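Task: complex structure prediction.
Instruction: return structure tokens for all chains below.
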Amino acid sequence: MKKIILIGLIAPLALPALETAAGTAEEKGLAIAKEFDRRDTGFGDYRADMVMTLRNKKGDESMRHLRIRIKEVKGDGDKSMSVFDRPRDIKGTAMLTWSHALKPDDQWLYLPSLKRVKRIASRNKSGPFMGSEFAYEDLASQEVEKYTYKYLRDGTLDGQDCFVIERVPAYEYSGYKREEVWFDKKEYRPLKIVYYDRKGALLKTETFSGYHQYLGRYWRADRIEMVNHQTGKSTTLDWKDYRFRNGLTDRDFDKNTLKRAH
Amino acid sequence: MWARALWNPSGGCAAIVVALLTGCMSAQGSEWSGYAAVEGRHFFEDAADPRQHGDNLSFSFEPEYVHEWQDGRQVLTFVPFARLDGHDSARTHFDIRELTWEKAAQTWELRLGIRKLFWGVTESRHLVDIINQTDLVEDPDGEDKLGQPMINLALIREWGTMDLYLMPWFRERTFPGVEGRLRPALPVAVDEARYESGARDHHLDWAVRWSRSAGVWDMGLSYFDGTARAPRLLPEQVGGEVRLVPYYDQLQQVGLDIQATLDAWLWKLEAVSRHDSAGRSSAFTGGFEYTFYGVVGDGDLGVLMEYSFDDRGDAFAVMDNDVFVGARFTLNDAQSSELLAGVIMDMGGDGRLVNIEASRRLGDAWKLSLEARFFVAIPDAKPLTGLRHDDYLQIELARYF
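Output:
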């Protein structure tokens, strides 16, 4: 409680300071990233259901249904558990991830038909998540130290004033050379991320829509769309039923719980 | 033969359970799912024994019922399995794969009932995995398992997880029948099975396993004391011909499994030391899997190599001094297409076992799987001798619901 009041006091002071920051573009970019991080810190944990719609160039669609649990970890990447409900042949398949900012995540996959938990090599955060246009690194928690930043310009997106910053992944095996992130100035929510591949060519555009605020503070988008400009394929994530602060502990993110996933 | 499968005690038990479960089907957090599949096998050669069949068609059905409550901290699972086989009456069978109640608390989990579980890390051989009996009629690779009745208490602490198992009822290994393919050269007389223990299949088996993840390491250390899952096969006169009689030893086994996950490398080791009526023996399997990312589009290529040793020699162990080399190709596409190809080579002889497995989802609810196995230059009087003429190609189409 005390902490929330304190943040409430600081926020009005921090914001104007940022608007008039006279530092370098790098300093301003970092300040924006830190402010985004500060505003999203302290959510504790949340659960949500997600439907992932994969679309190929011809417009054929296939869907995946997942249940997701995420727990915030102070000073490190978050822990997450994803359980598949559909397609039915992978029902009960579950993935446990202890994400880290600059080193490979710890990741275990549970295969229900074999009852087997496999620790998987997770160096390749740029690999596609379940055949989608989202790479593992796109879905991972956004820690400040994962990138170096540079403020580029101000812009307007759907009538909302935005900061446009560039961020360069610090992770050695990232699939991207750089990313362009559009944060709205009012709430510091990412509205759009443009990804450039390791050669610097335009690769993907991610757009966020249907933002709702939870616990009077944390913004989450209902819909995230990723379009791959090089392949013409796209993936839409439709999120629903966000539930925050379920009292999840590390025990909800261990191998025993992974095996109990259904 | 179908009726006979349903007449056995576990079949009757299943009927009661279905009746019980349908009662709470409408309850929140309950769901049926599962699959039905048709499988065709083509054998490239005539069988060694004229009584054995040729090409075969087979149907299987595995529904799954899950009921969760207390936010998933209590789970009831029921998974029956049935197969109807075109030619082999021993392969036509019914089993309860799972009928389990689980309760999870902060520092422990209790799991009660018929269960399937897996221990281990390696791909070409599963040495430490000893709890469940192999359902060998399903597939000669031994990956299919029968449900094992047990009480399992897991203690979950800072130092890892300690699993304690009590298993009051032993399941005998299934073998293809006289007319079935992929069996030893002599048919197995499963009805004549003998035991070292006077308690036969009611010997109280127990096991304990400590497991833990720490940094790049995942490890397990286990001890098992009870009825050996793999029987010795003794040639004897049964009903006017020589058949193999399964003999189940009492076995004490220490098992160790370790995996180190380093970058794109997985380093794996399984080792066992066992003691039975034939004395003490030991075996290990160790090797690696390395993944090349994005070799074709989004596709990943994993390269696997494992070495297996068993000091009982090749008269008893299929993999006594063998190298496995394989490749796993994962397309990472919308259809989850996968291909695994490998060969196990006997370093002390000529025998080779070639294995190809591929699968792909069709639409939303169908899955097509392909499996091909070739038994090359298998010498006489070895465990795999009976499979010499059984090279096959299998296609399975499954509908999931």
